[in-house]
Amino acid sequence: MSIAVIDCGSSNLRSALKAVQKFDPGAFITIDKAALLGATGIVLPGVGAFDAAMKFIREKGLEDTILQLIAVKRPFLGICLGMQILFEESEEGAVRGLGVIKGKVKKFKFSGFMNNLKIPHMGWNRIMIKQPANPLFTGIEEGTMFYFVHSYYGVPEDPAVVAATTDYGVNFVSSVWQDNLFATQFHPEKSGENGLKVVGNFVKICQSKVRS
Questions:
Q1: What are the boundaries of each domain within the chain?
Q2: Where in the sequence numbering do the catalytic residues fall?
Q3: Neighbours of 31 (CB within 10 A)
Q4: What is the pLDDT of residues 106-122, one digit of tens each?
Q5: First vs last Cα of the chain: how many Å apart?
Q6: Residues 10 and 47: beta-carbon distance below 8 Å
Q7: Which of 169, 174, 86 has its CA nearest to residue 137?
């Protein structure tokens, strides 16, 4: 079995797949339910609009499959928009999210002396690790730089799921961790050596679950 990358029509789909394939050569792109259910782990990348992504998932009948995989604790990694749609709702639109993480996705809003901060937040920024035991961050040091491209950020109701934060006008949540559910607002597939460490850690998590 190999890791499945869900095709949500995302522009970073191929780069996400290539990053995973460095550690799991058999990783593949699919929207086939049976293939997803048989996969070692799941990666949900995303670039674009919250509503469009959720409409695509529902049109393809993937919502129940994704929720089932998360419920049975199949290793799951959401990236950027793939993290945001795990929340219940977003200020970006009116469509309901997957609701796996209780909370809302909010838009960056700056005023006063912070008006010079550009939206989207684009480029390299540091993460502050809140859960050192998180296996996704094995070998990742506090303050490591990752690449971001986003105008919205998730605000979970439960602070216990916060795995990392980043400062950009506000101290926003840049990663969450809940059981075998992992998600990053940054793009590990675009973040050089340290991004590949994160992807490699996720593959190791998937492999360890198979062995157990």
A1: 4-211
A2: 80, 187, 189
A3: 17
A4: 999 998 667 789 999 99
A5: 14
A6: yes
A7: 174
pTM of the model: 0.96
Q: 154 has which bridge partners?
A: 105
Residue 113 contacts residue 73 (beta carbons within 8 Å): no
φ/ψ (deg, to 5) at 4: -105, 135
Place of tokens 């010079």: 116
The confidence score (pLDDT) of residue 113 equals 63
Q: Is the pLDDT reported for residue 10 higher than 70?
A: no
Specify the CATH number of the domain 4-211. Answer: 3.40.50.880
pLDDT digits (tens, 9 = 90+) for 144-189: 999 999 999 999 999 999 999 999 999 999 999 999 999 999 999 9
Provide the pLDDT confidence category of residue 12 given band limits of 50, 70 and 90. confident
To 10 degrees, the CA torsion angle through 102, 108, 109, 110?
A: 130
Dihedrals φ, ψ of 80, to 5°? 55, -110
- Beta strand 42-44 with 28-30: parallel, antiparallel or unpaired? unpaired
